[in-house]
Amino acid sequence: MQRLTDVVPSMTNELFVRRSEMPASAETVFAWHERPGAFERLAPPWDRVELVEQSGGIQDGARVVLRVGPLRQKWIAEHRNYVPGRSFQDVQVSGPFAHWAHTHSVEPIDETRCILEDRIEYRLPAGKVGNTAGGGMVRSMLDRMFTYRHEITADDVAAIQQRKEQTMSTIGVTGASGMVGSTVVPMLTTAGHSAFRFVRRPAKSEDERQWTPSEPQLDPKQFEGLDAVIHLAGENIGDSRWTQSKKQRIRDSRVDGTRRLAEALAKLEQPPKTLVCASATGFYGDRGDEILTEQSDAGTGFLTDVCQEWEAAAGPAREAGIRVVHVRLGMILSPKGGALQKMLTPFKLGGGGVVGDGNQYWSWIALDDAAAIFTRAATDAGLEGPVNAVTPNPVTNREFTQTLAKVLHRPAIIPVPKFAARLALGEMADELLFASVRVMPEKLQASDYAFRYPELEEALRHLLGR
């Protein structure tokens, strides 16, 4: 992505302009913005923004209702001046600004490139006083936001362009409200696929289907008409100490839920062609500096045992001729959840440091890459069996600590001794913090998958807006 201009003149209204070259046609980029999920894809993960209501796409008269900021202020915007294939505008009806008009436009360069422009005219409340007090903060916010938005757009349309010959699919997603699922679904829909969320409550919209994974047997009819299922449902492993009951829930939610799903799919007369199941690099256990690939044997430990049972539970689908992919996830990086979210507060306060001796390897993946790998696995018949969802650049905990501190401009000099972590977290500390797992994505490297964020520093800067 090539950024062309950033212009911020000041007259009655302030003007912010961001223009970037996109690696796809104007038609592709505009279609991406028109599809369901574009708002979710464009919302920076560090911002407190809740989509309350959305109606009518981006055509004239459509409205979006948001809750923004720490005070959850309501922001209502209306779409206007829709020009098919070229531009649209959203104008604040009510919200935090005295005036806000945002024009999105695309300009063709040739059949494979275009210019994306975001032009915002805005005015802060309280006139000159408001601009003096908050003008710099708003300009900085817009710069961070649109750097992120243009990176996301460029990466997504590049992936669409790379696989433009593929047939659009209808894909069901379990665990769609989780950190990964809530990224996978809009990534699918903005690419042109149809996605159904499987939810445990009664379905509220046409793109939802109710299911109860704890039932002894699932109704196969719930899964009719799907080309693929992405199975992400499972108990959170890092939100509390591993008591015996917690470990049982971790195991049962993965193993039993996957087996019931696989059995239901196998009973269909026309089952989905593909089942993509989440798994984890915990499969390999604590292996020091050994380089691990999909061909490596399982290790030992609680997570290793769970992962082996979890993957085996998909057997009925495999036996029915369904292509099964096990996406072995490394540490997923996002400020919205997981390990990175937990690290941010102590690191921002200057209380970060290495964990243990800091020499253990952490195999990681940015959230956008994790979601893109699930999307790819669901639509690429060349991927089957275990697939390591990690970057080609695992780092030690010491390297991770130093890089995060650099990005946040904070010191990281307060180590976390093993005994302290074990006292606080118990068994979980050994398997999640101290285990050394140096994993390589051999299958993804053998395919033409292009990592969006292969290096840790660029991934953290993207995710944190730094």
TrEMBL record:
Pfam families hit by this protein: DUF1731, Epimerase, Polyketide_cyc
Similarity-based family: Belongs to the NAD(P)-dependent epimerase/dehydratase family. SDR39U1 subfamily. Belongs to the ribosome association toxin RatA family.
Entry protein name: Epimerase family protein
Native organism taxonomy: Bacteria, Pseudomonadati, Planctomycetota, Planctomycetia, Planctomycetales
Record-linked PANTHER family: EPIMERASE FAMILY PROTEIN SDR39U1, SUGAR NUCLEOTIDE EPIMERASE RELATED
InterPro entries in the cross-refs: COQ10_START (IPR005031), DUF1731 (IPR013549), Epimerase_deHydtase (IPR001509), NAD(P)-bd_dom_sf (IPR036291), SDR39U1 (IPR010099), START-like_dom_sf (IPR023393)
Boundaries of every DUF1731 domain copy: 416-463
Matching CDD domains: SDR_a8, SRPBCC_3
Domain Coenzyme Q-binding protein COQ10 START: 22-145
UniProt domain NAD-dependent epimerase/dehydratase: residue ranges: 173-380
Family matches, as NCBIfam families: yfcH (TIGR01777)
Organism: Maioricimonas rarisocia
SUPFAM superfamilies xrefs: Bet v1-like, NAD(P)-binding Rossmann-fold domains
